[in-house]
C-alpha cells in the first residue's frame, strides 16, 4: 500500500505537470455505456482501457506509442475538457475572450491527455476496482469506487460526471478526498495571481514541449 500511496502522493502535489490516475484494473463483467447509468459509463471506460492494454496486436515495447495513442483517444472521448478547463480557472474564466478560451481548452486537454494516459499505462495492471454505488442529482452524478491492490489495501476514487446531452461525461476525479479539478484550480490561480494568465499559458506550453 505504501507504494500505491507514494504514487498518489506524487500525483496530489504535482498534478498540474505530472497528471493523474483514475483508471484501474476492473472486476470481470461488461456493462455498456449505452445502458444510461453513470456507473455504466465509468465501468465501460475502464473496460475499454483494459481492452487496449490487453490487445495482442498492441503488445511489446515497439507498440508503446500505439497503446498510448489508443488510450489518449479513449480519454478524449470520455472527459469534457471544456468543463474541466473552465472549472480549473474558476473566476478567471469569465475574463477571457472567446479565442483565449478555445486556445486554453485545447492546451489544457492536450496536457491532461498526455499525463493521464501515462498513468493509465503505468498503473492499470495488478489493480482491481470495487463499485461502491452512484448518486445522481439531475444532470450531475458521482460514482464511488475503491481501488484494491494485490495486498488488499484500498483507496477510494470517486468519479464526477455530468450529462449535458445524451451521454454522461467525466469532468473530475476525486482520489482519497483530493479533487483533480480543485488541484488545477489552486495551482492555476496561484500563477495567475502572482503573475498573469499569459504566464500560466507560457508555462503550460513549455511543459508541452518538454514531454
Strand content: 15-25%
Architecture (CATH level 2) name: Roll
How many domains in all? 1
The pLDDT mean sits at 83
Number of DSSP-assigned strands = 5
Low-pLDDT ranges = 11-34
Q: Care to describe what's here?
A:
With 211 residues, the chain is α+β, with helices and mostly antiparallel strands. The chain has one domain: Roll (Nuclear Transport Factor 2, Chain: A). The protein has 8 helices and 5 strands, in the order ααααααβββββαα. The chain has a 5-stranded antiparallel beta sheet with strand order 1-2-3-4-5. α4 (64-78) crosses α6 (98-123), α5 crosses α6 (98-123) and α7 (180-194) packs across α8. The longest helix is centred in the middle third of the chain and has 26 residues, at 98-123. The protein is globular, with a radius of gyration of 17 Å.
Short description:
By secondary structure, this protein is an alpha+beta fold. The protein has helices at 2-13, 15-18, 38-54, 64-78, 81-89, 98-123, 180-194, 197-210, and strands at residues 128-137, 140-148, 154-162, 169-175, 178-179.
Features:
single chain, alpha+beta, Nuclear Transport Factor 2, Chain: A, 5 strands
Q: What's the helix and strand layout?
A:
Layout: H1 2-13, H2 15-18, H3 38-54, H4 64-78, H5 81-89, H6 98-123, E1 128-137, E2 140-148, E3 154-162, E4 169-175, E5 178-179, H7 180-194, H8 197-210
Antiparallel strand pairs: 1-2, 2-3, 3-4, 4-5
